[in-house]
């Protein structure tokens, strides 16, 4: 199992981010669905947790066939999707993904994501109580303005280095923005990827983490760049 913690800061409050996150997910899902792939909602219902209180449970199928690398497509059925189960008790969420395939020969893998949101610049230590985590895990800060994303996803209108919000007056983001920007919040994500297959484990787990990193960067860039829409 490969565990990494990602910290993504945004020039928003946690309450603003809650609205922006829902808008971004909805808009992105619609765009992907128009391409013949995307998100299929299976369940969306209230859920009560004894610790976190009232929340929402969702189960989705995320269709991914065309997004796999060539070496993975060679051994994957044409119809491929990830089943995502999420429990949202904002500002705390749990997401568990499992590989759900239309065949029996491809081994299963799992992704487990815990998320916490706080109004700070990502300086909360041990936010997930590390005694629950087996072994050390890497902490990576993702900078929505200056970290590279795959070229095919780049849009100049969604570049935080150039975007300026007409409604909030926030942006563009300059070098060192995380230290002096107000308001600011951080999305803390503890991501565990498991693919226990000899010979493929390291390659698959590292690949999945790279995909998750790119998704997090792109999604948070868009959430800020679309702030005037939501």
From TrEMBL:
* Segments forming domain Phosphatidylinositol transfer protein N-terminal: 1-230
Which Pfam family would be a valid example here?
Answer: IP_trans
Q: Name one molecular function that GO assigns to this entry.
A: phosphatidylinositol binding
- Note the Gene3D superfamilies from the entry: 3.30.530.20
Gene Ontology cellular component list? cell periphery; cytoplasm
Instruction: Read off the PANTHER family from this record.
Output: PHOSPHATIDYLINOSITOL TRANSFER PROTEIN, PHOSPHATIDYLINOSITOL TRANSFER PROTEIN CYTOPLASMIC 1
Tell me the protein's name: Cytoplasmic phosphatidylinositol transfer protein 1
Q: Which organism is it from?
A: Mesitornis unicolor (brown roatelo)
Question: What does the record give as the organism's lineage?
Answer: Eukaryota, Metazoa, Chordata, Craniata, Vertebrata
């Amino acid at each position: 199992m490969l565990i990494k913690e990602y910290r993504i800061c945004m020039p928003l409050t946690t309450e603003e981010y809650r609205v922006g996150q829902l808008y971004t997910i909805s808009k992105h899902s619609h765009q992907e669905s128009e391409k013949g792939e995307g998100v299929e909602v299976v369940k969306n219902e209230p859920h009560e947790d004894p610790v976190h209180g009232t929340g929402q449970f969702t189960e989705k199928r995320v269709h991914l066939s065309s997004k796999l690398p060539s070496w993975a497509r060679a051994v994957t059925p044409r119809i491929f999707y990830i089943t995502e189960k999420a429990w949202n008790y904002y500002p705390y969420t749990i997401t568990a993904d499992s590989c759900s395939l239309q065949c029996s020969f491809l081994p299963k893998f799992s992704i487990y994501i815990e998320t916490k949101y706080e109004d700070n610049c990502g300086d909360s230590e041990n936010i997930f109580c590390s005694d629950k985590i087996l072994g050390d895990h890497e902490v990576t800060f993702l900078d929505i303005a200056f970290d590279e994303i795959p070229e095919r996803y780049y849009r100049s209108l969604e570049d935080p280095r150039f975007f300026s919000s007409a409604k909030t007056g926030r942006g563009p983001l300059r070098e060192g923005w995380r230290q002096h920007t107000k308001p600011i919040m951080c999305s803390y994500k503890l991501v565990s990827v498991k693919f226990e297959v000899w010979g493929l484990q390291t390659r698959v787990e590292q690949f999945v983490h790279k995909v998750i990193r790119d998704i997090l960067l792109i999604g948070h860039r868009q959430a800020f760049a679309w702030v005037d829409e939501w």
